[in-house]
């Protein structure tokens, strides 16, 4: 909503197109900005991700300026996609692939004095993660720990991508991660009864609105001050750090990157 209020052209990449259509109408009505479009994407289906990236390139051949990855699935950790846990596919591997496919568009969209930007929505749940690099999709974990591990993977990916772009001499795209805080959302809609009860109790007591939770992402996506800042983690519109040391372990990041790429390649073979 805030980015649309600034006059930006916004693409909503969504799986539930009925909800996307409602959001589009709401944004247009509240901002007066009619440059809002919806595109279908299913982050658990890699053909869908490829099709979405190709459609976006057809619509914006001159490039895009911002990508905000905001995937968040909590569901019983017993569902697999080609033998890979669904939580990890949707929360980490899907956004990893989408970002890879859109990097050429992001580089094309950068202009003099203004880099393109990738904002990766992680979570403070990363502090509670215990990611096993021998089986990164966490099949041995319950749903909350699997979610936390996927959010740690988001942060490790963000840090690794920022470093790789810098080391390659590519300074036209910056990458940062955010913790939005506890936000009143439908994150728990596929969760088990215990997590739903805890989540909805916390929603009543302390949750931010969606608008409040988006402020750090909007800041990183639009504020000129952050046009050249990369590889950082933010919460409450300020730079921060998670307590989980693995987030900043470059060797662990490289192992995660290589194994994620292998899994993506395997899944792409089925798409």
Describe this protein's structure.
β6 (116-121), α5 and β7 (173-179) form a beta-alpha-beta unit. The two termini are 33 Å apart. The protein is an alpha/beta fold and 271 residues long. α3 packs parallel to α4, α4 crosses α8 (250-270) and α5 (143-167) packs across α8 (250-270). It has a five-stranded mixed sheet, with helices on both faces. Strands 1-2 form a two-stranded parallel ribbon. The chain is globular and about 50 Å long. It has eight helices and nine strands. The chain is 48% helix and 14% strand.
- The oligomerization state is single chain
Distance between the termini: 33 Å
Rg (C-alpha, Å) = 18 Å
Q: Beta fraction of the residues?
A: 5-15%
Q: What's the count of strands?
A: 9
Shape: globular
- The number of helical elements comes to 8
What share of the residues lie within helices? 40-55%
What structural class do helix, strand and pairing data support? Answer: alpha/beta
H/E element sequence: HEHEHEEEHEHEHHEEH
Largest sheet: 5 strands, mixed
Mean pLDDT equals 90
User: Biggest sheet, strands in spatial order?
Assistant: 3-6-7-8-9
Give unreliable regions as ranges: none
